[in-house]
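Morning. Coffee machine broken again, so started the prediction first thing and wrote up yesterday's gels while waiting. Chain of 297 residues, entered below exactly as on the submission form.
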Amino acid sequence: MAQAWKCAGLRWAVDGPVLAWDGGRRSALPRGKRVAFGVVEGGVRTCGGARGHPCPVRAAVSGRSTGARCEECARLERAHSVAADTVADDPRPYHVYLAWFGPDLVKVGITAEERGSARLLEQGAVCFSWLARGPLMAARRAEELLRAALRVPDRIPYGVKRAVRSALPGTPAERAVEIEALHARAVALDAWPEALVREPFRPVDHAGVFGLTAGLATAYGEVSELVAGGGVSGALVAVAGPDLHLATERGTVVLDTRLMTGWELVPALPGVGGAGGGVTVPVRRFREETGVQDELF
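Came back before lunch.
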């Protein structure tokens, strides 16, 4: 039987996206690469643990869960989390940002300044601009100000983001229109926390980095879960946030790499794909259609 691998998730490195594997290996994800794997027959998806520690009971988790953690490990993972508002004394400076994911999909968020744009790449932000810089709690207050005054959400589901990627405007200037208007309204608001320094509008466009230009990533649906004995095979045409856009024999399908964690994966099973690629796991449509090796792929 071929060696089984366990995925530790997608990471955005300096040179681009990579898949990380338990044990420290990484697989680069250049466009055009064939991504092909099968889920071990009879396998069970197990909890990935929390904060670098394995799950003590190796609990089984749902194939549809993007968190891939049992209830207890999920609770521990969020403890001391900036995102969960459990940390108030982080001394690092933070950026407040506006991020655009597609038509009418803009959110406000914060990220540690030292992380640069990594958080925006991880979220799949097609375009973004910094809005202000300052201490954590002041950044949090600004985030709440924008939610209340301008009705800008701080969360957008990944499923909503990926469903609109085929309808993106064609130029960086067009993609920046919505956040430019919101940026102007935001900096003009009263009641900004005094500790924050507001920043000028400087849009950063990720469409080219993700490979979302020229309509190449237009997809007919998304993988809803992996299943034991199923497989995925296709040519990589785009990577946005945690999502792989794979060209298969039936068209382009999106695979959220968070669904891969917790499963034992092997090289593509016989009958999965062939030259054109294929998917033998459940796929949710966006619309009706007209041996041992050094790396898994």
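The mean pLDDT is 88. Going to sketch it on the whiteboard this afternoon.
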